[in-house]
Predict the structure of Fatty acyl-CoA reductase.
Amino acid sequence: MSGKGPQTYIKHKYKYQHVRNKKQHVWKGGQGQEAERRDSYTRAAREYATGINVRSMSVIEDILPGLPRGTPIQEFYRDCSVLITGGTGFMGKTLIEKLLRSCPSLKQVYIIIRSKKGKDAEARVEEIFEDILFSRLKEEVPKFRHRVVALSGDCALPGLGLSETDRLKLVDQVNIVFHGAATVRFDERIDVAVGINASGTKNMLELARNMIGLKAFIHVSTAYAHCTLSRIEEKFYPSPHSFGQLMAIIQNLTDQELEKIVPELLKNIPNTYVYTKAIAENIIKEEAGILPIGVFRPAIVIGTHSEPLPGWIDNVYGPTGIFVGAGIGILRTINVDPCISANLVPVDMAVGALIASAREVHNTQRKLGDSEGIPIYNYVSSAQNPIQWHDFVDMAKNHGKDVPSSKAIWYYSFTMTKYKVLYVILSFLLHTLPALLVDTVTILCFKKPKLFKVYRKIHRLSDVLTYFCTRNWDFSDDNVKTLWKNLGPEDKKLFAFDIRSLDWNQYIYNYVRGCRIHLMKDDLSTVPEARIRWRR
């Protein structure tokens, strides 16, 4: 840019320390060329603010008094520092991207990340930003990186594993907390699940109590935390055990002894994930005090609807594993009741509701000890826009036929049954028997057998999902409805989470392509080749 351009003009003539005294000189108002000049200065001022990492956008507004304000949600996040746990996960990454892109006046995003596979927190954050998920952010807000601070820590450790310097920094600067760190493995060891899901929540609360400027703390739970109930409302329910009781058991038993009593602890609860999520909610209920806190319960979270790009997904959890497995011809049958609600929600819509909930929690008046006043949000699809499993599978099949994968190893054939006995028979005939035959031939060819081991993993996945795919729940979502109703028109466009507006057919069209591109790493350029193989 030339030295006479508006960007250089602001940068060089009006140094940061003098901007308040130059207000009248910069702004004259007017029409025509003056209006163009005003727009040019607005863009330049935004770039200037980002480039020098100013402490507050109000400095730039002193220069540019006509600068438009943001939406109510954007204004809530203005000059705020946000702490996120679980930032390397599916929902966490989507949350980081959306905050940085849609809340441009956000001051800082802190992410607690543990070292993993020889990579420290900073290296892992850099790795996150290499994902295509952040491509739009890089285009629209190219200077976002300085606002993201990676902190080395571990939510399962005392004090979150933070250094004293980092702890004091968070206490002094953080205004909003999104606690989403969790182990999502359904068959996780009980001590590990308790450490991350329950102890991590307790450790976060201890840190939050000392935060000087805390405006909102959102605990990300799951809609299935109390899945033994047939109706789940937006309220707290009794915990299967208190955190203290559970810790006493864990600390006084060996790993072998603990493994033996897990069935007794869980009783009719299907797995350690939902068990520890229920305990974490009880910790919130018992220890929140007067903290501005809320609980967000999403249903089964899958790929993006539209933001920042349609169909993005990075994991094969839940129904995505079913679709991918069936799509490549390896999964032939599963124990699912086709006539029950799938209760799926797109991750970007869930994140929109999550971001909006923090503002409402901040505005919620609650008395000390009034745990019933803590807002809980059941973000589900079954209450307002249900889709049954057979509809999901049929739509996925129809759209999948248009873009078959070049990596398919067998023809598509998929059967759902709600009957356990029939599933066992079909599984043996369609999975186990072919795997044994193929592996036998493989061994005779002096190669390592793989297929039987693959099907063992598939059957474990199926066993985990069966509980949630053969039952219906009646969820209330009145708080989510109210949250949406209270948004202004601009925020409804920017943080669109009205599940009623979701067109399932169009969504699954993008979802199928997203699975192919982002999970199978199978570019759409291979579709013609795959179609030829499909039709043979």
Observations:
- Residues 1-62 have pLDDT under 50 and may be disordered.
- Residues 420-444 form the longest helix (25 residues).
- Residues 294 and 374 are 6 Å apart (CA to CA).
- The domain at 72-314+346-379 is CATH 3.40.50.720 (Rossmann fold).
